[in-house]
């Protein structure tokens, strides 16, 4: 059985992030042959083309982590109807230098949680536009707009509601199938 290496971004820098809780839940419920590594975004400087000749260590680590991954998963809050600046900054680093876009042909999926009922839908549309330009191979269904209910999750990501658990497990099973499908026709070097 092959194992797929999944790099994941949590779009929040909050120490009490509900999206981090969601990431823990997703990892718990994912198929066994997915292995997860978080790519930290909080210590990245703001991207500038001035760095293209000589990336700083944090950005080099981000590029290396993506180069070693088979797929990428984004778990993000919605900020002002888009994605948080810290996440966009990380994506900008990954997409450069020109010609060395880390997301090129990479299997990807997007999910997010909000305290509001729209459940990051608008942020996810924004993120999808960015990832389309970055030529990532996105899973388009199922969509997952999570209206976060604190009572449904323990701090370490255990899901106590059966319907939520089943939905999130299904999302990760579809993600695994998507990764396999994409890599069958677009193997990573
Ligand atoms: C700057 C800012 C902008 C926000 N904008 C939105 C928004 O557009 N839509 C939404 O549903 N929630 C919005 N929220 C509320 C977030 O959904 C809520 O803070 C959530 O807990 C953030 O996720 P996190 O806990 O993973 O950081 C915003 C919060 C902040 C701090």
TrEMBL record:
GO annotation, cellular component aspect: cytosol
Organism for this UniProt entry: Cellulomonas flavigena (strain ATCC 482 / DSM 20109 / BCRC 11376 / JCM 18109 / NBRC 3775 / NCIMB 8073 / NRS 134)
Pfam families: FMN_red
Record protein name field: NADPH-dependent FMN reductase
A GO molecular-function descriptor: FMN binding
Superkingdom per UniProt: Bacteria
Domain NADPH-dependent FMN reductase-like stretches: 6-144
């Amino acid at each position: 059985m092959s194992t797929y290496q999944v790099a994941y971004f949590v779009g929040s820098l909050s120490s009490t992030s509900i999206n981090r809780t969601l990431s823990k839940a997703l990892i718990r419920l994912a198929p066994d042959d997915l292995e997860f590594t978080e790519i930290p975004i909080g210590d990245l400087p703001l991207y500038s083309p001035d760095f293209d000749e000589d990336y700083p260590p944090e950005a080099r680590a981000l590029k290396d982590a993506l180069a070693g991954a088979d797929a990428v998963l984004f778990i993000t809050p919605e900020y002002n109807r888009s994605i948080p600046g810290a996440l966009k900054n990380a994506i900008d680093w990954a997409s450069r230098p020109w010609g060395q876009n880390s997301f090129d042909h990479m299997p990807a999926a997007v999910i997010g949680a909000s305290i509001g009922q729209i459940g990051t839908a608008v942020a996810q549309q924004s993120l999808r536009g960015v990832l389309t330009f970055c030529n990532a191979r996105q899973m388009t269904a199922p969509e997952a707009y999570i209206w976060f209910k604190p009572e449904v999750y323990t701090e370490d990501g255990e899901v106590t509601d059966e319907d939520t658990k089943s939905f999130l497990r299904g999302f990760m099973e579809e993600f695994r199938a998507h990764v396999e499908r994409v890599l069958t026709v677009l193997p990573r070097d």
